[in-house]
Amino acid sequence: MDAIIYRSPDAPYAGAYDVAGRPLLVRQLQWLREIGAERVAVELSPSAEHATIVRALDADLALTAGVQRVVTRTPRSPEELARRAGLGQRGPLLLVPSHVLGGVDVLRLLPRLHRSTRFELRRPHELAMLPPGHITVLLPDAPAVDEAQAPGWGVSLPTALDALELAALVLSGGLEPDAAVGEVGVQIHAAESRPGIWLARGAKVERGARLTAPVYVGADAVIRAGARVGPGVVLLERSVVERGATLHGVIVQPDVIVGEGVQLSASVVEPTGVADIETGEHLAVDDPLVLGLRPRRAERRDTRAIVAALQQRRATTRLALAAVKTRSGSHDVRS
């Protein structure tokens, strides 16, 4: 079975929404790999909104091996994407909108299909407030599409708030896949230090910080003493929450420093400002004491490399000048 993850016109950048520490698009690929999709194509935008997705794809070569990236400025139809990627010509083709995540084992459904079918996925009871998710299986030479219910969970995540609602359920242990029907869940790339509190590799929580589940603390992220974090908070890699800051219902993007005493709720925190988690409306913040950017170690290594290169060039120049003087001195003696 081949699969295409296409950008929905209603939520073209949904693939960048975070779901418990990973972009939604990465979660979709994990789902498709788990159920045995052989060839996968993903539709990406050249815009800045998809930069985080590209970095995440590049960082997980095992997951993305063989995944075709189709870059489009505006969303294209799944049929056009299939033609570009050369998929769906020899067998079933699964179409997944960019804002839909599920756990249904589609391969189990194929033997019962005689026509192309659009499936409505079952919403977990705790996420009944979210819109249902839909996927479509196209069969070769079967253009007519039936409607059916799929025996597996799935939801539509058109906003970052919806993605955070799903993340909260996952982090709390409330999403329990039904193995009897081949459902798969959402993997958390962290260790649970206590119920609902997840710490990724290198994460640091100082004594005196107060965490209220569910909370995900990404790799090398730091929560300072006196900070209050949660419920419903996702701190991505290398983010920092300073002393006295209060966060709930918040996603903090990688490398962002939340300043001392800052209070944030219902928002996505970026280096340049804060976006409403539901509407996406952005408020610019240019005060580094409120929001800052944590420098990368690689940048410091690059600085040292530049200094070393300059020192090497200076030493080389000195040797060259000394050689010139030596040759000049020898010439004077001979004359």
Topology:
Elements (H helix, E strand, L loop, with lengths): L1 E5 L11 E2 L2 E2 H11 L4 E6 L6 H9 L1 H4 L3 E4 L6 H8 L7 E5 L2 E3 L3 H4 L6 E7 L11 E5 L6 E12 L3 H12 L19 E4 L2 E3 L4 E2 L4 E2 L3 E3 L4 E2 L4 E2 L3 E3 L4 E2 L4 E7 L3 E3 L4 E8 L2 E4 L5 E3 L6 E3 L3 H38 L1
Parallel strand pairs: 1-4, 1-6, 4-5, 8-10, 12-15, 13-16, 14-17, 15-18, 16-19, 17-20, 18-20, 19-21, 20-22
Antiparallel strand pairs: 2-3, 6-9, 7-10, 8-9, 11-12, 21-25, 22-23, 23-24
What does this structure look like?
It is a single chain. The chain is 26% helix and 30% strand. With 335 residues, the protein is an alpha/beta fold. The strands form 4 sheets. Strands 11, 12, 14, 15, 17, 18, 20, 22, 23 and 24 form a 10-stranded mixed beta sheet that branches. An 8-stranded mixed beta sheet has the order 5-4-1-6-9-8-10-7, sandwiched between helices.
What is the gist of this entry?
This protein is α/β, with parallel strands linked by helices. It is built from seven helices and 25 strands. It folds into three domains: 2-181, Spore Coat Polysaccharide Biosynthesis Protein SpsA, Chain A; 191-293, Hexapeptide repeat proteins (UDP N-Acetylglucosamine Acyltransferase, domain 1, 3 Solenoid); 297-335.
